[in-house]
Amino acid sequence: MNFTAVRMAWRGLWRHAQRTLLMIATVAVGSLVILVLFGLTDGMVGSLTGTQIDWNQGNFQVRTAAYADDPIPENALSSEQVTAATAGLAGMRTVGIAPRMETFGMLRSAYGTDGVLLRGIDPTRESLVTRLDELIVEGRYLNADGQILLPTVLAEDLDIRVGERVVILAIGVDGTDSRAFIVSGLFRSPSFELEQMAMASIDDVCSVTGMEGATALAVALPKGISDRRAVEEARQILADQPGVVVADYFDLNPFARFMISGATIKMIPFVIMISLMAGFGVANTAFYSVLERTREFGVMTAVGMGRKLLARMVLIESTIVAAIGFVAGGGLGYGLLLYLSRNGWDISMLTDMVGSIGVPRVIYASTSGWYWVAALSVVVFTALAAAWYPARRVNRLEPVTAIREG
Amino acid sequence: MSKKTNHMQRLAVLTTLLTSLLFGFSAIAQEDALDVETILDRVNSAWQGDSFHGIISLGIVLGGQTKSHKLEVWTLGEELALIRVLEPEIDLNSGYLQLSDELWYYSPSVGSIKLPAMAIGDALFGAGPSLEDLSHGTLSDDYDASVEKTETGFFLTLIPHLDAPVVYGKLEIWVTADYVIERLIYYDQRGDVLQTAEFSDVVEIGERKFATTIVIEDSFGDRTIERIELAEFDLELDALFFSIETFESWGDDG
Fold this sequence. Notes:
Oligomer: heterodimer
Strand order of the largest sheet of chain A: 2-3-8-5-7-6
Largest interface: A-B, 26 and 26 residues
Order of helices and strands of chain B: HHEEEEEEHHEEEEEEEH
Radius of gyration of chain A: 31 Å
Strand content of chain B: 35-45%
Number of helices of chain A: 15
Number of strands of chain B: 13
Distance between the termini of chain A: 31 Å
Largest sheet of chain A: 6 strands, mixed, barrel
Largest sheet of chain B: 13 strands, antiparallel
Helix content of chain B: 10-25%
Order of helices and strands of chain A: HHEHHEEHEEHEEEHEHEHHHHEHEHH
Distance between the termini of chain B: 38 Å
């Protein structure tokens, strides 16, 4: 391979270091922005899905069709339905199947009252599905009847401490009933949805609501198992049980479908805009650098240098700029994403906007290698495509005209 | 802390009112009694089964701001209650209607809104355990109660059981020898005073003796001063009076 063009390009670039650095910075910023944009958007969708699945809902749920329309305890699965569905799903590869009984109620402490979603759980089976026990920051997990777990935010609002008695007032089939619970522990809520969630044993909640059975069975799948296939399999297994439906992630989170599809589509114009900005930036600078050197190029061709070699040199200049810019911007961007994937980005300041749709409190960026390719393909190709015009101009250079006009 | 919205303030008014209705009246009893349930039963007995009509003014001091309300109240038995707001002017003829387990809010501009059944429980809740509950057999289920005879009457101490649906740590109640409540202190579960209620200006109407001024103060300094300006008992009240139509008829007049 002939390295003359590379050497000439390298020297040419650093004759105007300031201009070269400007071009590198343009490509670097473009790469960085695209990388971070992709990483955060994908991370947000991933955090949203992951938080809901890991800490709240499980991979899918079994419930009654009536409960999907009207989530009240009266529409819960009966004990027989729970037994039959659990037995049916036993043949599938699952990590855990946890029954839940949920109802709305009022939580009262000596210092105030707030609305809560009361979730009755089977402590042992629930920890297989949502790992709630790992979120306890004070006190301990449920280990007896009459205990309740509260999110730290709610406990702070109502000035409740571990070991104190609180009263839950809930609507059951026989009207309103109140019951005392001792706060056994406080858990750190990973999403806004869980900040208004109190958890007690399913037997206690059944006694408050006057219902038996479960409003839902939350099912967790092992890593690597496709949610879609598992849901299809569960639907086939439970097809003979009238009124029982399998709700996948999108059934449980109707807003998520809109958010996920919206996120990808919304990215496209941003990527195009950033690419055009970076591309024109590089092309503009490369073009002026060629114009400035017209006379010089004329002399070089006059003394016998091939025009193709010169055009190649211009393209190589752009390639070097794009490569350095990409490595610098990409490296910085990836470092930022790596930091955000470990430490997360606290978006609580956006609570008002996202609070009601189950978005997690902290977004963890995604660091999939795919973003390198996206940033590379978009920014570098745009920069190179933009350098094509100046290179073409060099290729058509007439030595005499160039020397006279330059 | 609890969110003190306008609606909550309205509920607070209702709560305070129910406190007075449940605690404030007394039949004059002649015999001595040293059993907590009997004492509370006597404190409460005048209220049960009677009809009542009264005008009650409330001064609510919340976070340094004072709001005044004047309410007209009718009750028939334990199931029916109607509360009409007379002041402030802006809320005139709005109010609450309780038909056994149902609670309605009425406003001339909005119409009637059915409140969740929980609101009744919450209102009673806010006022602490009702004497009605205490004197109907749940006292021993929920509390360890003790009574001491004092120079002027009785001093009751009620400590809720661990599993009792009560958010307080302790209640102290002072009752006069003729069964009028003088003072009520609510403690939280850490032993700190949460709320005090002082009953004063005792008057006697017929067989009944009751406090006409009740001052409720919480640990944040928020106060409710309640004055019973008019009290009538044993009226001829028609159950049909307890309806949204009654509110609507006032609305038309207004």
